[in-house]
Amino acid sequence: MLRRVSPLFAVLVVAACTTTPELDATAPVDTPALFAALNAEAGPASSDWVAGFNDSQLSDLITRALDANPSILSARASLDAAEASARSARAGLLPTLDGSASVTERDGGNAAGTSFSLGLDAAWQADVWGRLSDTSRAGVLSAEAARADWHGARLSIAAATARAWYALNEAALQTDLARQDVETRTRQLEIVVRRFNRGVSRSSDVRTARSALASSRAALASREQAEAASARTLETLLGGYPAGAIDGDRGLPQLDQVPNPGAPEALFERRPDLVASAARLAAAGFSAEAARKALYPSLNLRASVSDGGADLEDIFDFDDLVSSVAASIAAPIFRGGALRAERDRQAANARRQAAQYVDTALTALREAENAIDADARLAERVDALAEAVVEAEAALELVERQYASGVASIFELIDAQTRLINANAQLISARGDRVDNRIALHLAIAGDFAAGGGIAPGASN
């Protein structure tokens, strides 16, 4: 029987091959040996960026977030589902075995009575063209992509928690500064009122001082609102109710030189989104191959064993055992173009994944370059603003003495105090921006942290 089918089998194979286009899904990304924005003053590479901030409370918060954040729990569930799908795809390579048992009751006629039967059916599809293997490989690669997504979720939540923590601290520092400004404006108003009562100041000076105090109170209310919002953001990341009850420690870390981020090429093995994108690209290629090979004929083997009789014990009497073995070749002839449409869809999806991989790679490299470049510029900004604060403090002291002696006006006093407050506020903001950018750098290069950071180069999932 198989020999008679062979000529038809060969014709169908040739027909399937001649109607299948070749798939070319590549993703070339050229990278330099070093990041362009990296200068010679970079510090040593960081082995644990969270510990590098020397903030035990930050470490505790990240641990809490990794245990309770819904995004991580969702990514973990997606990983479990992808691994289950991979196991299901691998099962297609193995034979199937089904058992059956039945009891039949007939009334009337010569066949009246009860009969029992017991049987086993085994089936196996030979992976002649490797289609089932391609499907299995696609499932395994999809699971690897899901695992990389899980790593990425952990890294992202760790970075988001660090950002939220220091954003809360920055907001708390700004609130303290605004509160100090209100206290200073209040003392200034008292001085102006006393001078007015002595006839030294005019009533317009009193009203000007009151206006400045009211503006400071409005700024304080805005700062308090921002601090409460920052607290709620952090509480949400920790998986808790956003009550705005968590307090910052009102501290921002002192940063050293930017750590050496390594070679750009290392991002392709460390950064979770790139690892996931590469795995999905490979999975799409295997899926496209499997869809192409679905046009080929398939070889199926089936065997069955059954026994039965009028009595229950007859099913264990192997004298009446019936067995059969069959082999069949099936080839698609007409499916309304469904198989070719699926082949073309999977090929297009592979090309789409290739383009997405390039886009993800370029985005990753851009984020790293931006963070490296911004670190030095933010450091310069912090130094300049620190100098501005020193000069503003000296100017305020001078104007206060001049106002007390009647040389300076109330407007000069208020202007000097405003300049000092603004310089301090900008300095706090610049320090916060630099900390935020340093976290963005570690996120961009998939830096390690004790609870789990990027993917170790060469790691096998």
Write structural notes for this entry.
The protein is α+β, with helices and mostly antiparallel strands. It has a single domain, classed as Up-down Bundle (Outer membrane efflux proteins (OEP)). It has ten helices and four strands; from the N terminus they run H-H-H-H-E-E-H-H-H-H-E-E-H-H. It has helices at 2-18, 49-52, 56-68, 70-91, 131-197, 203-237, 267-270, 272-293, 338-404, 410-444; strands at residues 96-106, 113-126, 298-309, 322-330. Helix 5 (131-197) runs antiparallel to helix 6 (203-237) and helix 5 runs antiparallel to helix 10 (410-444). The longest helix has 67 residues, at 131-197. It is elongated, with a radius of gyration of 36 Å. Mean pLDDT is 85; it is low at 1-27.
What's the CATH H-level homologous superfamily?
A: Outer membrane efflux proteins (OEP)
Question: How large is the count of helical segments?
Answer: 10
How helix-rich are the residues, as a percent range? 55-70%
Q: Please summarize the sheet with the most strands.
A: 4 strands, antiparallel
Total DSSP E strands: 4
The secondary structure category is alpha+beta
The topology string of helices and strands comes to HHHHEEHHHHEEHH
Q: What kind of oligomer do you see?
A: single chain
Strand arrangement within the widest β-sheet reads 1-2-3-4
Can you tell me the CATH architecture? Up-down Bundle
pLDDT average, as an integer?
85
Low-confidence stretches: 1-27
